[in-house]
Amino acid sequence: MKKNNTFNPVYRLRFVYIMCVLGLAILLWRVFDLQVIHPSFLQQQGDSRALREVKVMAYRGIIYDRLKNPLAVSTPVESLWVNPLEIDVNNPYFLQILKNLKLNKKTIQDKIQRLHTKKSQFLYLKRHLDPYQVQRIKQLALKGVYFNKEYRRYYPMGEVFSHLLGFTDIDDKGQAGIEKMLNSVLQGVPGKKRVIRNSKGNFIELVDELLVAQSGMDIILTLDARIQALAYRELKKTMQKHQAESGSVVVLNTRTFDILAMVNQPGFNPNSRKNLHSDRYRNRAVTDVFEPGSTMKPITISAALMTGRYHANTMIDTRPGFFQIGRKRITDHRNYGLINVATVIQKSSNVGTVKIALSLRAKQLWQQFKRFGFSQSSGLGFSGESGGVLRDYHSWKKIEQATMAFGYGLSVTPIQLARAYAVFANKGKMRHLSFLTAQSRAAICSKKLLKSVCYSTKAQQLIPEKVAKEMLTMMESVVKKGGTAHKANIPLYRVAGKTGTVKKLVNGRYSNQYIAVFAGIAPVTDPHLVIAVMINKPNKKEYYGGLVAAPLFAKVMEGSLRLLNIRPDGETYQQLKSH
Amino acid sequence: MKYFILALLLLFCFFSALTSVYLKQQSRKHYQQLYHLEKQQDAMLVKWGQLQLERSTLASYNQVEDIAIKKLGMYYPLLEDIIFTDIRK
Predict the structure, then answer these.
(1) How many domains in chain B?
(2) How many Å apart are CA A343 and CA A352, to the nearest integer?
(3) What is the least distance, in Å, from the CA of B2 to any CA of chain A?
(4) Secondary structure percentages of chain A, helix, strand, coil, to 5
(5) Residue A536, pLDDT above cutoff 70
(6) Mean pLDDT of chain B
(7) Model confidence at A8: pLDDT above 80
């Protein structure tokens, strides 16, 4: 018996062959099934696992000072979010994360539960994490835990620029200051792209760029970080020394009307936004009004000079040291006797100023105040900016005309005061104030991003050059021996200015609280800078503008002139040079 | 002749399929590179931001002045230290 006979090798081969063909046919059918009959279903399944539409955050523009020091910079940070449908809320690692991030376990679990029932797929656990924390959480590779990229704003100069720059919220949108005003310029346009993601969450293929992200524009300010830092430090020192409540300093270039520094106290740290109170972040130099007091006298006197009836040497009788208007009495510190107009400014005589002011028509005085920009916004465009108060001359009474002449009954902001004094310094011409360089303004305007910065910087002659010169000479006597502010003197340079010591109006009555003011110009030969200083409520021992505000002015002015390499012109310089 | 053209077309078809696969692979590769570079850039930006903050604290104008005066014994030039020259001459 041969076993082999029952098994024919031909059949065996044929059997294998048929099986192969059958197997191939099944595979082909499967291919056909996948590719032709059910492709959309499978495509969808695949896409939902791998295809993602992601938002591309736009980079917020950097803010630089005029020396290209970065003042506000956005850096990427990651925010932690979870998918409530995927996360296991009782995973011990997850609970550890909550503990490390100091999040309440119960509230988060409840929240996730609620969103889970609503089929919601997104919940921020914590935004803007430290890179170190991100690293550690990523290593755990928990299911349902994701990160997305956001930007966080840093302010390298900290509180020095805090009021001017303002700050952004957690979504990197401007909330105050320049950040708010120029938000549309800085913020850019976020993009969108479709990508394929692998199982680790890395993007492996770009499928489609739906919208290309556009970065925000970088802007350059006219401010000088060195002068700003100097002004801030000196203001802080003065505030502490005199236990004052608040204060502002503005430094202005008198030729271009560019703002070189603008600082306020109290300040805040923009990098840590805890305890943020509007009292601290208000940019007082443009928002807070005060009665300018004696710093208004040069403007009143300039109105008198413009009539042609007065000159620096015109004699004014200030005897007997007071002047009666109805029931009100206007007084001087002492009886100055018969003095000329220049001395009225030098000694800051109220009686002299009032006598001159009352010899003018109310309209003339009002027009002069208006001309110097009082009651008109600075044009800078900050939100919350105040234009100050100046009532129409039709409603003035005689006593009001008198008090307004020496700065009571109207109110101004520090920036307005600086701008007005810059007119004296700039040969009687005024320009539009700027905090943006011409280059940045041109870039913004050409793209039509923000209209409010597209102004003309053409100079406007407000008062004759001769009058401006005369006023400068008068104001120079204020800081000389016998003037009210010899502490505003600085060696090497000639300085002109005017003090103000203002009684503060509290609930409609003049109290025994004061505001110390000083506005000054240097160098007198060829003016370059104006600085306005305002110190609110210095303590009662020393509150005179000449004692509180003038020394601060001198410190900031001296430092600024040195930093800007401005040629000295003072007597000391002439003497030293001749040696 | 007919069959020859058909074969040629099939061949082209085959190669085109291969190239498409190859190019897709290349595109993924390049995108991955881009993705990693973007991540690197982010990391550098973070670092830059930190360094900016660090620089501004260590080299703030007040700090420099403080060190110059206290540690290095420097001072602002007194009037008698200053010698004037006229660059216009």
Answers:
(1) 1
(2) 9
(3) 27
(4) 40, 25, 35
(5) yes
(6) 86
(7) no
Contact residues on chain A for B52, CB-CB shorter than 8 A:
70, 73, 154, 156
Segment A295-310 shows an average pLDDT of 95
CATH fourth-level superfamily of A53-220: Penicillin-binding protein 2a (Domain 2) (3.90.1310.10)
Q: CA B82 to CA A36: how far, in whole Å?
A: 91
Partner A contacted by B26 (CB < 8 A): no
> Nearest CA of chain B to the CA of A24: how many Å?
20
Domain assignment present for B45: yes
DSSP A69: -
What are the tens digits of pLDDT across the range A354-394? 999 999 999 999 999 999 999 888 888 888 888 888 988 98
| Binary contact (A73, B52; C-beta < 8 A) | yes
A154 touching B, CB under 8 A? Answer: yes
Which pLDDT band holds residue A1 (cuts at 50, 70, 90)?
very low
Judged by a CB distance cut-off of 8 A, whether residue B25 touches chain A is: no
**CATH number of A225-269+281-434+468-578: 1.10.1060.10, 3.40.710.10, 2.40.50.140, 1.10.1200.10?**
3.40.710.10
At B51, the pLDDT band (50, 70, 90 cuts) reads confident
User: Residue B45 and residue A75: Cβ atoms within 8 Å?
Assistant: yes
Q: What is the mean pLDDT of residues A537-546?
A: 85
Note the residue count of chain B. 89
The per-residue pLDDT for A545 is 85
Tens of pLDDT along B55-76? 877 888 888 888 999 999 999 8
| Chain B residue numbers touching A572 (CB-CB < 8 A) | 79
Residue at B22 is within a domain: yes
Taking CA atoms, A328 is separated from A243, A331, A508, in Å, by 33, 10, 16
Q: Which residues contact A3 (CB under 8 A, 6 or more apart)?
A: none
* Residue whose pair of structure tokens reads 């001359």 in the numeric block: A393
CA angle, A23 then A25 then A28, to 5°: 110
pLDDT above 80 for A197 = no
Do A53-220 and A225-269+281-434+468-578 fold alike per CATH?
no
Catalytically active residues of A are: 294
Question: Any idea where the domains of chain A sit in the sequence?
Answer: 53-220, 225-269+281-434+468-578
Instruction: Determine, yes or no, domain membership for B89.
Output: no
Interchain CB distance below 8 Å, B84 and A158: no
**Rounded to whole angstroms, how far apart are CA atoms A296 and A519?**
10
Least CB-CB distance to B31: which of A149, A156, A205?
A205
Cα A142 to Cα A102: distance, rounded to the nearest angstrom: 19
The alpha helices in A326-454, defined as continuous H runs, are 341-347, 350-358, 362-371, 398-405, 414-425, 438-446
Query: Which pLDDT score, from 0 to 100, does residue A579 have?
Result: 60
